[in-house]
Specification:
With 409 residues, the protein is an alpha/beta fold. It folds into three domains: 7-62, no CATH class; 78-302, Aspartate Aminotransferase, domain 2; 317-403, Aspartate Aminotransferase, domain 1, CATH 3.90.1150.10. Helix content is 38%, strand content 14%.
């Protein structure tokens, strides 16, 4: 299903999808509070747009409001909605190992929204189906979990509890989880929303989700598991055989992936995936003017973002994506070999392209010059390098020359 297409096949599929939309040009669309992009500002220049499916979609401006994997959704933009459904199926089934047609999902604005969407769904489930009170529900995740989880706890009025991590793996371990749950139980927490990380923001560390599952099940506590693969979703499944954080694990109910990180899509392109039967807990029936109402956090959103991810996935195909990640793994291995040879302290999960260097190994000036990101801008303990497409060996060599005076590659 996830087969590489050539540029003209991609163009043809997208223009066909745009034709299937009830566009604002040439059709009687009188009631939508929107139109194509303002032609005085964004010229509909055919010489440019006829060969540019992404820009054409931007200009046509389809709205992807709602969730299009559910039975009913807006009919106006059905053509491009169908391509978004393909994106969701590729991500859920081909990358995250779900069975055919078992997942819903949508292209969210980013990792923050997708994480909030998951936590919102589970909070509502605990409140409405289990009779929980807000103060009995906690999100639990490693201390290196992205701050969007703290944001979700604040917005949704539930607890956020950090689990201390193992200093060797930067991931959760059994004792940290047991201590955390014991403390939370004493404080009256009965319902747990687990956020397990497939590559944390700062360290690229990966949590063993089964440690949470075992600890919570053995105490007969209610829990749901969300995987934050905002960074790792387009990397880790290609660099490792570990399926614990995918839909192959029956305990995983939802996953966040971000196409605007490793997949190099334009910003505004997160991917939210969830097993069928769960979106309904975020269903806003008051959205009565939207066909199928709305089960997403965001409301209106640009169809161009979905088209961008679809184009990227189709340009590479499954094998092309494996090759892309293989190259980044090799570059990261090379960097780590150099650091090892010169006894520079750093952390790297072996299946990740994030290398996080102890701040004592370099000056703040070098970190700034090379655009390394600190864990804390006021008092950095760590600086990270993310080996992305634009980070080549030649760039890494220049950096190594600065931190290791005797460096020769
Ligand atoms: C692991 C993880 N989760 C969530 C997010 C939030 O993503 P966004 O900035 O797209 O909202 C990030 C961003 O860096 C991240 O690394």
């Amino acid at each position: 299903m996830w087969k590489k297409l050539n540029q003209s096949q991609i163009r043809e599929r997208i223009f066909e999808a745009l034709r299937k939309n009830r566009g604002f040009r040439g059709e009687n669309v009188l009631g939508l509070p929107a139109s194509y992009l303002d032609t005085k500002v964004f010229s509909p220049d055919h010489a440019l747009l006829d060969n540019a499916p992404f820009l054409s979609t931007m200009v046509e401006n389809p709205n992807h409001i709602g969730c299009h994997t559910l039975e009913q959704s807006e009919a106006y933009f059905e053509g491009t909605h169908a391509l978004e459904r393909e994106v969701i199926r590729i991500c859920a089934e081909q990358i995250m190992g779900a069975e055919e047609d078992t997942c819903d999902g949508y292209v969210a604005s980013g990792g923050t929204e997708a994480n909030l969407q998951a936590i919102w769904i589970y909070r509502n489930y605990f409140l409405n189906e289990c009779g929980a009170k807000h103060e009995e529900i906690a999100i639990i995740g490693s201390e290196h979990t992205h701050y969007s989880t703290a944001k979700a706890a604040n917005v949704l009025n539930i607890r956020w509890a950090k689990v201390e991590t193992d200093k060797n793996t930067m991931a959760v371990n059994k004792s940290g989880i047991e201590d955390s749950i014991t403390g939370l139980e004493k404080e009256g927490i009965r319902y747990f929303i687990v956020v397990a990380n497939m590559m944390t923001t700062m360290f690229g560390s990966v949590d063993d989700v089964n440690l949470y599952v075992d600890a919570l099940s053995s105490r007969n506590l209610e829990f749901k598991v969300h995987v934050d693969a905002a960074f790792g979703g387009f990397y880790y499944p290609f660099s490792s055989d570990d399926t614990r954080l995918t839909f192959q694990n029956p305990h995983v109910t939802s996953i966040t992936m971000d196409a605007h990180k490793m997949a190099q899509a334009p910003y505004g392109t997160g991917v939210f995936l969830i097993r069928k039967g769960w979106m309904q807990h975020a269903h806003t029936k008051e959205a009565s003017y939207v066909e199928g109402q709305d089960s997403t956090l965001i409301g209106s959103r640009s169809g161009a973002n979905s088209i961008a991810v679809w184009m990227i996935l189709m340009t590479y195909g499954k094998f092309g994506w494996h090759e892309k990640i293989f190259v980044l793994q090799k570059r990261t291995d090379w960097l780590c070999e150099q650091l090892d040879q010169h006894q520079i302290r750093y952390f790297r999960n072996p299946n990740s392209n994030i290398v996080t260097i102890d701040s004592s190994e370099l000056s703040a000036e070098i970190a700034t010059n090379f655009g390394l990101v600190p864990d804390n801008h006021n008092a950095p303990d760590w600086y990270k390098i993310v080996v992305m497409e634009h980070v080549e060996i030649e760039h890494l060599e220049l950096f190594l020359n600065q931190i290791i005076p005797e460096f020769v590659s």
